Amino acid sequence: MKLNKIAALSSVALLSMGLAGCSSSTTTPKPKNISYSQLSSYKSRKKVINKDLAKKLKKDQKKAKDGDDDYNYSLYLYKVQTWEDQTIAVNVDKDNYMNLSTKEKVAVGQSIDTLVKKTLKENHVKGKNIFITIYDEDGNILVPAYNYVTLKFKNKKDQEEANVPVEYQNALDKAQSYSDNMHMSKQGLYEQLTSEVEGFSKKSASYAIKHVQANWNKNALEKAKSYQKNEKMSRNAIYDQLTSSVERFTPSQARYAINHLPK
Questions:
Q1: What 3-state class would DSSP assign to 149?
Q2: Do 71 and 149 fall into the same domain?
Q3: Distance (Å, rounded) from C-alpha 61 to C-alpha 133?
Q4: Are residues 125 and 14 in the same domain?
Q5: Which of 56-70, 170-184, 240-254 is the least confident region?
Q6: Where are the alpha helices (DSSP H) in 17-111?
Q7: What's this model's pTM, rounded to 2 decimal places?
Q8: Which of 107, 154, 163, 257 has the greatest count of CB atoms below 10 A from its CB?
Q9: Phi, psi (degrees; rounded to nearest 5) at 202
């Protein structure tokens, strides 16, 4: 999967770049690291630019959802920079993005809305009107000075995955392996993850159980087939085994398995 980057600057970072004296007035002195362009066409262009971007994002999202490899995670081909000053945000150009330090770039995976909120929270910024500049993956400006509150740019599933701690992801990967290969029950998986063997925390295990891709009925059936074929067990014995403290399937899952066993 291609990883791109999202650039984020909080008001605190902006102050360190010499923007502390900037205001929304067009007479504000120009910061040395930001070049200006004319403001005259901004208002008329903003609606068109935002509308076009919205269409592109929606189109890309559909292609990604349809499994088009060229568009997977295409929602994250955009970098975002936050500004406290609208005039600066409107006029920032490509050179500014290219000058951002590595520290000011955040790994892919967060929606613009989440990224901005995270940046504001980390820098204790409250009650301020923040604007964002959206760049494409080459640093070209797509949308200048979009108020982050109004930007509808969310993909909840990918957003959540991006913020997952490493241990949570490891627990999920382990749970997926157990489910796919050993066809374990939901409770069985949880107990295995939190056992001395695996040693995951309860929170990590709970996250894994919540997000693992598993069909518990089918897991019970696969486990039942194994007992039937390899252990030569009767249906009643298989049911008891599935609902025992060893396998931990629910009665309904065990019944599903028994009802779908080969005759």
A1: helix
A2: yes
A3: 20
A4: yes
A5: 56-70
A6: 42-65, 86-91, 94-98
A7: 0.43
A8: 257
A9: -60, -40
Does the structure show a pLDDT above 80 at 222? Answer: yes
Give how far Cα 69 sits from Cα of 50, 61, 78, 143, Å: 26, 12, 17, 26
What are the residues whose beta carbons fall under 8 Å from the beta carbon of 136, sequence distance 6 or more? 77, 78, 79, 142
Domain around 29: 5-161
Average pLDDT, the chain: 62
Q: How many CB atoms lie within 10 A of CB 14?
A: 20
Specify burial of residue 161 (Cβ count, 10 A radius: 0-12, 13-18, 19+). Answer: middle
3-state SS class at 156: helix
Which has the closest alpha carbon to 82: 53, 120, 50, 44?
A: 120
Whether the CB-CB separation of 116 and 7 falls below 8 Å is answered with: no
238 vs 76 pLDDT, higher one: 238
Boundary residue ending a domain (113, 145, 161): 161
Handedness of CA 158, 163, 169, 175 (dihedral sign): negative
Same domain, yes or no: 22 and 116:
yes
Confidence grade of residue 169 (pLDDT, cut at 50, 70, 90) = confident
Q: How many domains does the chain have?
A: 2
Boundary (domain end) residue, out of 143, 161, 179? 161
